[in-house]
Amino acid sequence: MQNNKFLSALFAAGVTFVLACLMIGVKLDTEGTELAVRGATAEQWGWIGLGIGLVFLSQLFSNQIDAFFGKLPKPKLSGLLPEEKKRAALKPWLLAALIVGMLIWPFMVSRGSVDLATLTLIYIMLGLGLNIVVGLAGLLDLGFVAFYAVGAYTYALLSMYFGLSFWVCLPLAAGLAALFGFVLGFPVLRLRGDYLAIVTLGFGEIIRILLNNWTAVTGGPSGISGIPKPTLFGLEFTRRAKEEGAQTFHDFMGISYSSSYKVIFLYLIAVLLVIFVIYLINRLMRMPIGRAWEALREDEIACRSLGLNRTTIKLSAFTIGASTAGFAGSFFAARQGFISPESFIFIESAIILAIVVLGGMGSQIGVILAAIVMTILPELAREFAEYRMLLFGLLMVVMMRWRPEGLVPMKRPHLELKS
Amino acid sequence: MSQLLLDVNGLTMRFGGLVAVDHVDLAVKNRQVVSIIGPNGAGKTTVFNCLSGFYIPSDGSVVFNGEQVAGMKDYQISRKGLVRTFQHVRLFSKMTVIENMLVAQHRHLKTDLISGLLKTSSYRRLEQEAMDRAAYWLKEMDLLQFANREAGNLAYGQQRRLEIARCMVTQPELLMLDEPAAGLNPNETKELDELIVRLRDEHEISVLLIEHDMKLVMGISDHIYVIAQGAPLANGTPDEVKNNPDVIKAYLGEE
């Protein structure tokens, strides 16, 4: 047994060594037109050695480490929080305070933070959408970004060719993404788990490659630029009105122009969209359809024996999940003003999936928290420069090792029976 | 003579060259407990799978309440009032007991999306009715105190009872139980015995039973069908079956 431990520790250290050598030890640099391989400095090698030693020791003594952490007293959260009934009474006030806070907050902080918050809100929407498909219905979808792309391109193309406004396109984008979800749903009805993951992965790539190659319509790799920003009842947030006869926001209000109005306005739209999506999904989860999604995840055969039609249940999960992504997509297009297939690569799907898994499958609060962590952490870790993604990966490994159920695991609703 | 609730004629199921079920006939009347017995691998569960629509029978007719159901989809058959349990308990184990009961009433909660999203009064009334029905059956099965527990955390006997409760809440006319006593202790088996009799006498449903526990089968069945190697071997009242030389031979082997 001890011998086994030693061998596995040695193996882990070896893997660390190989990975570290490849990623940190050797660097490719361009010198003029040539590529040159450059080794790491002595100091970096020192750090690599330390890292390998740490991995070796932690693997060798993993039992002891686990035992130590097991002995640590767990913080008693239940004692700190007020009673169940009091909490239920406090909930609407807390929610109201949170929403008011979110609406006031952008006026007090820098433009950059508001922009980052808007991005976070987009990921929250995406996470909530995928949560329906993966977390509730248990259908592993690796191509979720396709629906995001459909939403974004719907708005971009409709506004480019037909001059439709953001507010008209928003429901259209959600509808079209839902249609794509429906279309994808059909061939994969009989698939589960790994097989489903592969098909959805392929679907995501098909959409991206289609957008890339259909140059005549989508502009191909160069994308679509100059997508108009949303307006507030026809008021534009530009310095000068783009269209003849249109009025700008600052003219209307009689204040001087500031570019941060636009950022804050976008943020506020995102907040409203997220609140709308949260409300919608929250209701759905407590409705028969939401329970049916979960039942399908738990046991498909039992569902069939109880008279549940798995076709409609699966399709509805795909459709509603996709429409949320379509929502997020069209807002993303409006915020960026420029989209290209580059924005919808596989890594985006992976990040959205990571948000759902890290947050806790099926848990809305968990997904929201995870989306915040996943978008803000890379920004905070900017000073680590190229090791940023390494840290990011490390965080995920640690999370899955010590909290596989996610940040905030889904809580089952408590239903009162009168008897 | 009461009317036939379930009338199966010449039911045959072939998997390639293998004939798993060979011309099996069954008849279940209203308010009857009918059992199917037979050695392991005789094709009892395959018969269940054919009746409940999990398999499409290769041949034969299945008439339920005067309607041909052979070839229908599984969920359509169960909506007609023919509901089954499984040899291995199949609960929605991460969901609570009460949620299990609500999922089973999916088709009774015929609410459209909009009224559910807006929580209209008609939606709330339907939801309340479903909760009441669930509470009623949980009480019948002595599970009410576990209503908000995760189904997977219940004791095995309780899980078995929950599976039956979940079927009953769909308001079936014929309940098909696939080895409900498997894994139960003698005490729990006795309770199951009483429960099945109560379902027949008080709730006026019919029960089709697959079971290996002969004491249970002989005690409660109105009629017994014996299947061996996919083909019908004998049928009759418990006494007739008990004394049938063919049945004894199939179970104990030839002397």
Topology overview:
The complex is a heterodimer of chains A (419) and B (255).
Chain A: H1 2-25, E1 26-31, E2 34-39, H2 42-60, H3 62-71, H4 77-80, H5 84-104, H6 111-136, H7 145-162, H8 166-185, H9 193-213, H10 215-218, E3 224-225, E4 235-236, E5 247-248, H11 249-253, H12 259-286, H13 288-298, H14 300-305, H15 310-336, E6 338-339, H16 346-359, H17 364-380, H18 388-402
Parallel strand pairs in A: 4-5
Antiparallel strand pairs in A: 1-2, 3-6
Helix pairs in contact in A: 1-2, 6-12, 6-13, 6-15, 6-16, 6-17, 7-8, 7-9, 7-15, 8-15, 12-13, 12-15, 13-15, 16-17
Chain B: E1 4-15, E2 18-29, E3 33-37, H1 44-51, E4 59-64, E5 67-68, H2 74-79, E6 82-84, H3 97-104, H4 113-118, H5 121-140, H6 156-168, E7 174-178, H7 186-201, E8 206-210, H8 214-220, E9 223-228, E10 231-236, H9 238-242, H10 245-252
Helix pairs in contact in B: 3-6, 5-6
Helix-strand makeup class of chain B: alpha/beta
Q: What kind of sheet is the major sheet of chain A?
A: 2 strands, antiparallel
The spatial strand order of the largest sheet of chain B comes to 6-7-8-3-9-10
User: Percent helix among the residues of chain A?
Assistant: 55-70%
Distance between the termini of chain B: 40 Å
Low-confidence stretches of chain B: none
Rg of chain B:
19 Å
Output the helix-strand order of chain B: EEEHEEHEHHHHEHEHEEHH
Number of helices, counting only DSSP H or I runs of 4 residues or more of chain B: 10
Q: On the 0-100 scale, what is the average pLDDT of chain A? A: 84
Assembly state (oligomeric):
heterodimer
Apparent shape of chain A: globular
Amount of beta strand of chain B: 15-25%
Shape of chain B: globular
Q: Helicity range of the residues of chain B?
A: 25-40%
